[in-house]
Each structure stands twice: as structure tokens, then as C-alpha cells.
């Protein structure tokens, strides 16, 4: 017989900072929406590079104190990690106007975390939007992290039609979105990745692809209007002086704390529904295998996104 789980939900708890094994599946009380919140029954989430960074508390020494205050010192203050979700609104608070029970949505929870669970309550003004109608919940959950971050950085760099843009790390979650969004903005796009991912990056619309294990783009004589390092400084420090046009810019995903906007998620929905932005999924795991999913993402070479199926 099925256990009576009314009022409770399954969730993955980060018991302390450390390796993937610190994640444990537990039964916790199901959240109840406040007056301005929606309660979402989650069907899918994704394991992002940021989830792994938080889980392991990978923070430069100079930021340890600050991040301890923000996230918690020995373990995350909000023990349920997870930044992205897709699901169906189960109930809404009395002041909610934008959504109703039954709406299919996807979301980026930001510092609220909490997507590794069967339910999450979010303010209706959080980064929540109607899910693109032409994708599955798993695909929808794979979109907000890479999509919103790539959009933020490309706009910050003032990308323009006709720009020659190089995306370094073009096969990751942020990189696969950046390639597609840069094409949408009318750029000529070069994607840099390892040999195994060249075809994928080409299929996303890159005009040129470079295998970083064989060719150093800084020696090819080409000058770019924008070089976007989507790998990050921990793994790739690029010497770009000789590879930029006079007004060219070099930006890195960890140059600043991105300010993601709720209004950009419906914009992504539109791009997905018109076929301009396609979700890229490497693997899917059930919630019970979240430790294995973190082990895989920890390696730093996923292709696009790793999805977690939450619903039973
Ligand atoms: N500023 C912020 O607040 C913020 C927010 C989110 C993320 N980030 C940063 O963004 C990074 C990328 O996120 P993501 O989700 O896109 O990661 P991801 O999906 O794991 O992708 C990583 C990418 O890096 C490439 N790569 C790995 N090692 C490399 C190396 N040594 N040289 C060149 N390329 C390498 C991989 O390509 P191959 O497999 O082909 O090697 C892949 O394309 C994160 O690690 C994080 O540091 C920053």
C-alpha cells in the first residue's frame, strides 16, 4: 500500500557542504503558498554548475566570509538546493493575479533555491513564466539557467547585429544558449569547445567551430567584437588583447553577479516557441539519483543540461 504522504513531499537536502554524497532524499513538510505566492508541483529540475559550486562551497578565499553570511557557514541555510524548475501551479495565494491553478510554468528560483523537491512556493513576481507550449517539462527546466545568464551577459556586452562573436565553452549550459542567442541577435558566431562537441555547436547555428584542444583561437589572426568566456576564470583565463577589434569586449561569466530579470523569461518562452532557441539536454536522472547527477556535472564537461525528473 502507498504510504499516506498528504502534507509532505520528497525533497533532496544538502546536509553539509561537501561531495555529492552530502545530498539526501528526505520527506519534508509540503510548503503552503503565502498571499502573494504560487505553489508549483515540480515535474522537472536540472543540476546546474552553480548547484555544484554551492553544494561544495567552492568560493575564493576572499569571498568565504561574505558567502558564508549569504548561504550559511557549515551548510546551506536553505538546505534544499536547485535553481530551476518546470511544473504545474497547484494552488495560489489570495492576492495572486498573474497565474492560476493548472498553469504550466517554469522558473528560476535564484537565491531562494528549493527546486530539488516535489513542491516549491514562489512569489508571483519571482522569475516565473508560462512554459513554452512546444517543449516537455524536462526541456523547460533546462532553459532558464543557461538562457537567462547568456542573455544577461550578451546584453551587458551590448551585442549588435553584424558583430563577430566568439563563445568560449560553447557546449555547456550557458554556452549552448549563448551561441543560439548571439545568432538571434544577428552576430557571426564562432563556438569554441572540445572535439566531441563540434557537431552539436554547429547544429546550434555557429558559423565557425574551433576545437580548443587542437587550435588556440588567440593565434588565428581573427579579431572579434565580443569574446564571451562561458567557461569561467577558474578553468579558463583567456589572453584576448590581440583578438579583439579596437572597440571589442571580452567578458567572462563570473565577471559580476548577474542581475536576472523576470521579464526575460517570457522573452525566452517566445524564442523557444518560434524555434529560435532549442533546449539542449545531455542526460536525465530520476530524483533518487541526484548524487550520480551531481557526480557527472562536477566533471565540468556536460553538453548543455542535466535534467532531473521529479514527478513520480
Ligand atoms: N557569475 C555568476 O554568478 C555565474 C553564474 C552561473 C555560472 N557561472 C559560471 O559559469 C560556468 C559555466 O557554467 P555552465 O553551466 O555553462 O557549465 P557547464 O554546462 O558545465 O559547461 C562547461 C563548459 O566548459 C567547457 N570546458 C570545461 N573545461 C574546459 C577547459 N579546461 N577549457 C575550455 N573549456 C572547458 C566545456 O566544454 P568541453 O566539454 O567541450 O570541454 C563546457 O562547454 C560555471 O562553471 C560557473 O563558474 C557564473
Could you list some keywords that capture this structure?
binds NADP nicotinamide-adenine-dinucleotide phosphate; about 300 residues; 14 strands; about 30% strand; 5-stranded parallel sheet; alpha/beta; 8 helices; globular; 7-stranded mixed sheet
In short:
This protein has 312 residues and is α/β, with parallel strands linked by helices.
Describe the structure.
With 312 residues, this protein is of the alpha/beta class. It has helices spanning 49-56, 64-71, 137-141, 144-156, 173-184, 198-203, 264-273, 290-298; strands at 8-14, 23-29, 37-47, 84-92, 104-108, 119-123, 127-130, 164-168, 188-193, 208-211, 224-229, 244-252, 281-286, 305-309. α4 (144-156) crosses α5 (173-184). Bound molecules: NADP nicotinamide-adenine-dinucleotide phosphate. NADP nicotinamide-adenine-dinucleotide phosphate (NAP) is lined by residues 48-50, 149, 169, 171-175, 193-194, 197, 212, 230-232, 234-236, 253-254, 257-258, 300-302.
The coarse overall form would be globular
Query: Low-confidence parts lasting 5 or more residues at pLDDT below 50?
Result: none
Structural class: alpha/beta
- Summarize the amount of helix as a percent range: 10-25%
Name the beta content range: 25-35%
Specify Rg, calculated over alpha carbons: 20 Å
Instruction: Give the cofactors and ligands.
Output: NADP nicotinamide-adenine-dinucleotide phosphate
Amino acid at each position: 500500500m502507498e504510504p499516506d504522504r498528504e502534507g509532505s513531499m520528497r525533497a533532496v537536502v544538502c546536509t553539509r557542504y561537501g561531495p555529492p554524497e552530502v545530498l539526501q532524499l528526505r520527506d519534508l513538510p509540503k510548503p503552503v503558498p503565502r498571499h502573494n505566492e504560487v505553489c508549483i508541483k515540480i515535474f522537472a529540475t536540472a543540476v546546474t554548475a552553480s548547484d555544484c559550486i554551492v553544494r561544495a562551497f567552492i568560493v575564493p578565499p576572499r569571498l568565504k566570509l561574505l558567502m558564508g553570511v549569504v548561504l550559511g557557514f557549515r551548510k546551506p541555510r536553505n538546505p534544499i538546493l536547485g535553481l530551476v524548475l518546470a511544473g504545474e501551479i497547484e494552488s495560489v495565494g489570495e492576492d495572486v493575479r498573474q497565474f492560476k491553478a493548472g498553469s504550466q510554468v517554469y522558473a528560476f528560483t535564484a537565491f531562494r533555491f528549493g527546486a530539488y523537491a516535489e513542491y516549491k512556493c514562489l512569489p508571483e513576481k519571482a522569475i516565473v513564466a508560462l512554459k513554452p507550449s512546444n517543449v516537455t517539462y524536462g526541456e523547460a527546466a533546462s532553459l532558464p539557467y543557461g538562457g537567462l545568464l547568456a542573455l544577461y551577459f550578451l546584453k551587458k556586452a551590448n551585442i549588435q547585429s553584424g558583430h563577430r562573436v566568439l563563445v568560449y565553452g560553447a557546449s555547456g549550459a550557458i554556452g549552448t544558449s549563448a551561441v543560439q542567442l548571439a545568432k538571434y541577435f544577428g552576430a557571426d558566431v564562432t563556438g569554441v569547445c572540445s572535439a566531441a562537441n563540434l557537431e552539436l555547436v554547429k547544429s546550434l547555428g555557429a558559423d565557425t567551430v574551433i576545437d580548443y584542444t587542437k587550435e588556440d583561437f588567440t593565434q588565428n589572426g581573427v579579431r572579434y567584437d565580443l569574446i564571451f568566456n562561458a567557461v569561467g576564470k577558474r578553468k579558463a583565463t583567456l589572453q584576448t588583447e590581440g583578438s579583439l577589434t579596437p572597440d571589442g569586449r571580452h567578458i567572462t561569466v563570473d565577471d559580476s553577479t548577474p542581475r536576472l530579470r523576470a521579464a526575460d523569461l517570457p522573452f525566452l518562452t517566445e524564442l523557444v516557441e518560434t524555434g529560435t532557441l532549442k533546449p539542449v539536454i545531455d542526460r536525465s536522472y530520476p530524483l533518487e539519483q541526484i548524487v550520480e547527477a551531481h557526480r557527472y556535472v562536477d566533471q565540468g564537461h556536460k553538453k548543455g543540461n542535466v535534467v532531473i525528473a521529479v514527478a513520480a
